[in-house]
TrEMBL record:
Entry keyword Phosphoprotein: yes
GO BP annotations listed: phosphorelay signal transduction system; regulation of DNA-templated transcription
Natural source organism: Knoellia aerolata DSM 18566
Domain Response regulatory, residue spans: 2-118
Official protein name in the record: LuxR family transcriptional regulator
Pfam families in UniProt: GerE (PF00196), Response_reg (PF00072)
UniProt keyword list: DNA-binding, Phosphoprotein
Length: 212
């Protein structure tokens, strides 16, 4: 398995490479310091699996994953992150990541995840397993039928508004620019004909949103 490690922290990046060295079936072919370098090195080295950090300069891991998979859909992306935020998890899945681990996972968990992703499987760390069913199960809260006038992105934003998130928190969770979030909020209020954010929250919660 040819593996590319993308992380802006050299201690983690080099430490993971060292951790994988004893495994003869795994070869670390490149190490990227940011998302943009990850995209470039993926095109150069054609790895089987990319271990991708989320929070990186130049280009975050979510957008880097989108760009890598647009160029080579066969690459397995295993996302590593410090947190377990639902918005981040959903964004990684929608970008095409096939694995999601929280930093601090055991050595065995990491190597199993890389092997499984390479084999075409989908892997989530044990601490995240309970969240997957809830996030992926069909529910009125995430159904287009609830607010058909909204786009999918606007429904995501509304769900987070209903959960009490600020614009800044929404921008971070969905990896959007603050201005984009503001524009989405304005569009939501207009489409719902809500007089203010509070009214939008009430309507969204009545529809079952904001409970994740």
């Amino acid at each position: 398995m040819r593996v590319l490690i993308a992380d802006d922290h050299p201690v983690f990046r080099d430490g993971l490479a060292t951790l994988l060295e004893p495994h003869p079936e795994i070869e670390v072919v490149a190490r990227a310091r940011d998302g943009a370098e990850a995209v470039a090195l993926a095109a150069e080295h054609h790895p089987d699996v990319i271990v991708m950090d989320i929070q990186m300069p130049q280009l975050n891991g979510i957008e880097a994953t989108r760009q890598v998979l647009a160029a080579d859909p066969g690459v397995g992306v295993l996302v590593f992150t410090m947190g377990e935020d639902d918005g981040t998890l959903l964004s990684a899945m929608r970008a095409g990541a096939r694995g999601y681990l929280v930093k601090g996972a055991s050595q065995d968990e990491v190597t199993r995840a890389i092997t499984s992703v390479h084999a075409g499987g989908v892997v989530f760390g044990s601490s995240l397993a309970a969240r997957i069913g809830e996030l992926l199960s069909p529910s009125p809260a995430r159904s287009a039928a609830e607010f058909p006038m909204l786009t999918e992105r606007e429904r995501e934003v509304l769900d987070l508004i209903a959960a009490g998130r600020t614009n800044g928190q929404i921008a971070s969770a969905l990896f959007l620019a603050p201005k984009t979030v503001r524009n989405n909020v304005s569009a939501i209020l207009s489409k719902l004909q809500a007089t203010d954010r509070a009214e939008a929250i009430i309507r969204a919660r009545d529809a079952g949103m904001g409970r994740a």
